[in-house]
Amino acid sequence: MKINSQKKINLLVDCVKMLMIVAIACALVSLIVFAVSDDPLNAIYNFFVGPFTTLRRVGNIVEAASPLMFTALAVVIIFGAGQFSMIAEGSFFIGTAGAMVVAITIGMPAGLHPIVAILFGGILGSIVALIPALLKMKWNVSELVVSLMLNYVVQFFVIYLVTYFFREMESSSLCSVLFQDTATLTTILEGTRIHTGVLLGVAACIVMWFLMYRTSFGTSLRITGDNALFAKYAGLKVSGIMVAAQAIAGFLAGIGGGAELLGMYTRFKWTATPGYGWTGIVVALLARRNPLMVPLSAAFIAYMNVGADIMARNSDVGREMVDIIQGVMMLLIAADALLQGWRQRMIIKAAKAEEEVSV
Amino acid sequence: MAEALQMKNIVKVYSNGVMANKDVTLCVNEGEIHALSGENGAGKSTLMKILFGEEQATSGEIYVNGKKVNITSPQMAIGLGIGMVHQHFMLVPSLSVTENMIMGVEPKKGIFIDRKYARQQVEEIGKKYNLYIDPDKKISELTVGQKQKVEILKALFRGAKILILDEPTAVLTPQETAELFEELKHLKESGYTIIFISHKLNEIKELCDRITIIRRGVTMGVHNVADVSEEDISRLMVGRDVVQKIVKDPAHPGESLLRVKDVKIVDETGTVYVDGVSFSLREGEILGIAGVEGNGQSQLIDAITGMGHISAGSISLRDKDISGASVRKIRSMHIAHIPEDRMTTGVAASLSITENVIADKLSWKRFVRGGVLRRKEMRAYGQEMVDAYQILCKSQDVEIGSLSGGNIQKGVVARELSSEPLVIVANQPTRGVDVGASEFIRHQLIRARDQRKGVLLITSDLNEVLGLADSLIVMYEGKIVAYIQDVASMTESELGTYMLGIQKQSAAQIKEALHED
Ligand SMILES: Nc1ncnc2c1ncn2[C@@H]1O[C@H](COP(=O)(O)OP(=O)(O)OP(=O)(O)O)[C@@H](O)[C@H]1O
Ligand SMILES: [Mg+2]
């Protein structure tokens, strides 16, 4: 059978599968809502249509997708190298802190200021991600455990930093003083808060795709991720690649944090890590670990979140429902058997047709 | 005689569109050893996986003991008394031998696994079938041959009456093979039915009653093994005459290329694997290393290729010390390495054929410029390798793991021999490769030798080592016990006495291996 017809079949089946998952997720939303709500139609309307009713809300989707792209990319790279570090969360948060420090303390011209701030955040993110990576390289400590623990350390360190050095004394709740005007990112669409960080995110996805599939480093990374022993045997610098992958991932999550902070806020307001690192895993898996699919899958997850928020505000159904749906979607994505029968039947038909032609 | 098994008009299309079985029919009588033969990629493993319930046939019928069955899972196959030993190991490396053997059929004591009983049973069955392996050892600590034994025991342990053996002897030494054959004949007499796959035709002649030959997914016929010669079998398989005898001109060895001197390898626990080995590989020669598996050859090869360490002594290439150097450094000095176990060290299974054949060449200007891949060059090269080594595949872009065992091996050999090597360390180079392709690979090794390269050949196939090697060292318990300068003068039985440590040359004779004046 021609590679071409095979590719077409796979593409078709994969697309239909994704649509089906989305449809099932939507159906599930409706089902739950009908079960728990007194006014289900209103809730469902708010969930599905709500995000599109005003420009501002559409903007919310894009804004919410922005940080997810960065953390999902970090996850794609780390998992791609066969590592199981969960550091995206910590790197993201330290990235916000790094950007905050630069945004508050250093005076710089407007164009340059956010760039420096974001880069600084990226570097800090990278350094944090290197800790589990190097511990694993040196002493074979599980990067999974170290990164999970480290996420807490980072969280409390950042809160400490804000509380003792940058706190706005006038305010009753914990938040930092205002950033300098020069530091914030510009809004690109009037009437929304969509900021240049979104463009940076999309650019990062393209760059990462190129890195993974079009460079020798990316090839080494994928080889290492698939079979580390083979990578060693082929003469690749296995531990170097694993460490580099985590450093890059940390950097991505870090600039993601910086961009989020400077794009969406004028002061630092988090009192705990916002959880983008975790949602990033969902986004990465939904994108089938393909950097080019990350923007789309981030947008979809963002849509669900925005819809849930609107629904929570305007009806009697809570926003936690979206977590249930995300969980179910993960299961569906992992279920390879879905639609396999259909794919198989089409392939058999194509193979037989080809066989007849060649005989 | 009653038919134990019948597979009728089996068709199998894999999910990537490969039609591995087009029309295969296989009838196996009760109490016979039935050979299944065919070229690499003919569809043997596929057919057996269907029988074992791991793959579903696209169409066709299966009868076991005359009853039509629809086998949808290995559990069901086991329930029908079918057991399978896979071509590629299906063991969990981090678990012990016992745990692997009882997996899925754990003896229970209440809700707990009865470990003591399980261990005892495993020990007993090993002794009973003469395939003893320490039940407490972890799989990752075993040699390839030992893993194979665990696989065979695992199938027997599950009480299989119809036993599928997919290339069980590919990694066994001749002694182990002989022992296994004794056992199989014994099983046959007690009424077991055995399906045996092997590319070694002499084994088929010795062991099997009947043979079914498949070519490109179609049954070519069934024969009584006694009625067909080895030549007939290979002609039926390949469709042409295959020269099985290895022909080559006498060697003209020159300067020493690779020099191993007083090498000692000891691990952290103090176990001595290699104990003062010295030899020298000269340009223009194929130097064989013979020995029963587990006598230090693996560790020695690992040390030479940078995969392992040495504790004392030195290894040098053209007077440059390479002891303890990294694989990268050693590869950059043009030492190629065909590894013993293709699946664990030889390939990244989910990457494409192309990516696998250039995995060691990512520093070549031809494929990478400024860190960026030159995709066109890469793919052309992948295609070149596929053509030159006749790797059966749809294109060079398919995952290498989806190829048949022998075709994966060809991919590994292609990568290594095309890396412009000066020294080729070939560990079981033709393992699992069919007669036609073996001929080709051996020919390539001889050609490399004639181009003044050095080939270090490690193989458990005695015919291969005697036919291909120019000179030979024999290892026993970590030491060299014999150095044979001219292999032509050697017989199989004499070699056997050295390999089993019954005979040993004098120190002076062994020292000649170093070629020091
Ligand atoms: N999982 C798979 N997915 C797709 N194609 C496969 C898969 N397994 C095998 N094939 C294809 O099916 C064909 C037959 O393979 P199979 O493993 O049955 O050959 P074989 O006769 O056992 O060969 P060998 O002697 O090399 O082991 C090959 O062309 C192979 O590429
Ligand atoms: Mg096979």
Give a quick precis of the structure.
The complex is a heterodimer of chains A (359) and B (517). With 359 residues, chain A is mainly α.
Largest sheet of chain B: 6 strands, mixed
Question: How many separate helices of chain A?
Answer: 14
Q: Which ligands are bound?
A: adenosine-5'-triphosphate, magnesium ion
Major β-sheet strand ordering of chain B: 6-9-10-3-11-12
Tell me, briefly, the overall form of chain A: globular
Instruction: Write down the domain tally of chain B.
Output: 2
CATH fold node name of the largest domain in chain B: Rossmann fold
Instruction: Give the number of DSSP strands of chain B.
Output: 24
Large-scale geometry of chain B:
globular
Average pLDDT taken over every residue of chain B: 89
Radius of gyration of chain B: 23 Å
Strand content of chain B: 25-35%
- Give the chain pair forming the largest contact, with residue counts: A-B, 32 and 42 residues
**SS summary, helix count of chain B:** 18
Name of the top-level CATH class of the largest domain in chain B = Alpha Beta
Chain-averaged pLDDT of chain A:
87
Structural class of chain B: alpha/beta
The CATH superfamily of the largest domain in chain B bears the name P-loop containing nucleotide triphosphate hydrolases
Terminal Cα separation of chain B, in Å?
Answer: 67 Å
DSSP helix fraction of chain A: over 70%
CATH architecture type of the largest domain in chain B:
3-Layer(aba) Sandwich
Please tell me about this protein's structure.
The complex is a heterodimer of chains A (359) and B (517). With 359 residues, chain A is mostly helical. Chain A has a domain at 66-293. Helix content of chain A is 74%, strand content 0%. Chain A has helices at residues 3-36, 40-48, 55-80, 88-105, 112-139, 143-166, 196-214, 216-226, 228-233, 238-264, 276-286, 294-314, 321-334, 340-358. In chain A, helix 1 runs antiparallel to helix 2, helix 4 (88-105) crosses helix 11 (276-286) and helix 7 packs antiparallel against helix 10 (238-264). Chain B has 2 domains: 3-238, 3-Layer(aba) Sandwich (Rossmann fold), CATH 3.40.50; 256-513, P-loop containing nucleotide triphosphate hydrolases (Rossmann fold, 3-Layer(aba) Sandwich), CATH 3.40.50.300. In chain B, 32% of the residues lie in helices and 26% in strands. In chain B, a hairpin with a 2-residue loop joins strand 7 (108-109) and strand 8. Chain B is globular, with a radius of gyration of 23 Å. Adenosine-5'-triphosphate (ATP) is lined by residues 14, 16, 18, 20, 38, 40-46, 87, 392-393, 402-407, 434 of chain B.
